[in-house]
Design brief:
The protein is an all-alpha fold. It has four helices and no strands.
C-alpha cells in the first residue's frame, strides 16, 4: 500500500526533514500562575516543611548519639580517652544486623 506524494513533499529536496510545529503551544507563565499549579505548590510547601524539620531533628539526634557513644561513654567508663578497640563492638553488632536472606 503506497501513499501518493503530497504537493508539499514535492517541493522538498530529497533527504531533508520537515519540522512539525504544534498549532498551539502552552504558555509557561500562564501555566505557573494557574490554580492547579499553585495548589500543588502550596501542598508541597505544607508537606515539605514538616518533613524537612523532622529529617533535621533526626540527623541532630544521630549526631548526639554518636557523640555520646564514641566520646562521652568511653570517657565515663574508662576515665580517659576512648581506647582504640572501642568502636569494634559497635561495628561487629551492626555487621551482624542484616537480613537473614543475605550472605
Amino acid at each position: 500500500m503506497t501513499q501518493s506524494p503530497r504537493p508539499d513533499d514535492a517541493a522538498q529536496p530529497p533527504g531533508t526533514a520537515t519540522t512539525v510545529t504544534p498549532s498551539t503551544t502552552p504558555d509557561p507563565l500562564a501555566m505557573i500562575g494557574s490554580k492547579p499549579y499553585l495548589g500543588a505548590l502550596g501542598l508541597a510547601a505544607v508537606l515539605g516543611i514538616p518533613v524537612s524539620a523532622i529529617a533535621y531533628g533526626f540527623l541532630a539526634l544521630v549526631a548526639k548519639i554518636q557523640q555520646y557513644v564514641f566520646t562521652d561513654l568511653p570517657t565515663s567508663m574508662t576515665g580517659g580517652p576512648a581506647p582504640a578497640w572501642w568502636p569494634m563492638p559497635c561495628s561487629r553488632r551492626c555487621s551482624s544486623a542484616r537480613p537473614s536472606g543475605s550472605r
